[in-house]
Amino acid sequence: MKKQAAVIGAGSWGTALASVLGQNQHTVRLWCRREALAEEINTAHKNEGYLKGIVLPDNIVATTDMKEAAEKASYIVLAVPSGAVRKIARKLMPYLHEDTIVVHAAKGIEPESFLRVSQILKEEWADLSFRGMAVLSGPSHAEEVAEQQPTTVAVSGTSEQVQTLVQELFMNQAFRVYTNDDFLGVELGGALKNIIALGIGLTSGLGYGDNAKAALMTRGLAEITRLGTHLGASPLTFTGLSGLGDLIVTCTSEHSRNWRAGNQIGSGKSLEDVLEQMGMVVEGVRTTEAVYHWSRELGVEMPITEGLYKVLFEHVPPENMAKSLMERGKKNEKEHSIMLLDNN
Ligand SMILES: NC(=O)C1=CN([C@@H]2O[C@H](COP(=O)(O)OP(=O)(O)OC[C@H]3O[C@@H](n4cnc5c(N)ncnc54)[C@H](O)[C@@H]3O)[C@@H](O)[C@H]2O)C=CC1
Ligand SMILES: O=C(CO)COP(=O)(O)O
User: Fold this and answer.
1) How many A from CA of 332 to the centre of ligand 1?
2) What domain range is 170 assigned to?
3) Of 168-172, 183-187, 251-255, where does mean pLDDT reach its minimum?
4) Could you name the domain of life of the organism this protein comes from (predicted)?
């Protein structure tokens, strides 16, 4: 059935998600910051700056007016960088109502508070009543979603009903949505894989090959799972689309901004230059900062995150990261899995 949906954020991901909703014949209002972009979307049905060469469904209406975008929507999809979520949550406050379902699609952890995006939203909207919240996450580069290439993602919701409604809202022949009741795990997987993708990009920039890539992906997944299960997520979620799936796509695709940023830093560019030239969000930088401090506070070992933090924030040369990871004390590969099995 046709729904009223608002997508907040007309960058790569917001535009791609609006496109999926438009293909599904929903009424879509896409909120953007810049008038010129709204004009481009409404007249040329394009967003060339973010999704080059893509023609958008003509039932997407772009606006810079939050009221116009969100007021009548029964679904509000948040697709801004995690760093903008608090500000946007405040702007959205007047337009949430009893029937609103909020779907967030951002992947990050807030430095200092160590909050996930859904926790930021709950904090900002503590006094409001709305129908529910969901997180949409998985291996889904916007460029391929916009081209209607086959894509699979996971959705988790504050209730089973919300989860199923969001699955129905997005699902189509090119965009397959699986439900997963582990909200925490789905949200964490998407945020944490960006750290590992940055790290792998870094080693590629240094000239290391596929063995290093496979090592970092495998041990990266181990450290994501270690933190996630410590916090109460299911280990199985990290083997699914929002865990391993998203890790694979972000660590192996040249679409990935996190991988590309790491690659350029490994090749000798400064973090500041890389971020300035990217022109799009590189979530892994902020999440590395958050998770480095968070894991130390929790006493959870995350050596890849630690190594990357030192490169990004303490000016340690990238080659030292690989060296320090290789020279760590002897370990049993299954240490953590054995501990998890023992606890069950
Ligand atoms: N691009 C992708 O393939 C995917 C991205 N994501 C996640 O979606 C989120 C958004 O990413 P992208 O769309 O790729 O980023 P982007 O850099 O392509 O676009 C970001 C959009 O947010 C807007 N924005 C930035 N700061 C803002 C602020 N302070 N207030 C209001 N609007 C602001 C920008 O104007 C732009 O429209 C991130 O958390 C990302 O990890 C998730 C899945 C896939
Ligand atoms: O999350 C993504 C794909 O699932 C996008 O990753 P990047 O932000 O690294 O481009």
Assistant:
1) 39
2) 4-181
3) 251-255
4) Bacteria
Catalytic residue among 3, 193, 323, 334: 193
Q: Percent of the chain scored above 90 by pLDDT? A: 96
Give the pLDDT of residue 270: 96
Contact 202, 145 (CB under 8 A): no
The answer for residues whose C-beta is within 8 angstroms of residue 207's C-beta and 6 or more apart is: none
Q: Say if the ipTM goes beyond 0.90.
A: yes
- Binding-site positions for NADPH: 12-13, 33-34, 50, 107, 142, 257, 281, 283
Q: Are residues 155 and 13 in the same domain?
A: yes
- pLDDT confidence bin for 343, thresholds 50/70/90: low
Is 21 in the same domain as 167?
yes
Q: Are residues 201 and 166 in the same domain?
A: no
To the query of whether residue 193 is one of the catalytic residues in this protein, the response is yes
Please answer whether residues 259 and 246 qualify as being in contact, where contact means their C-beta atoms are separated by less than 8 angstroms. Answer: no
The minimum-distance atom of ligand 1 relative to the CA of 10 is: 37
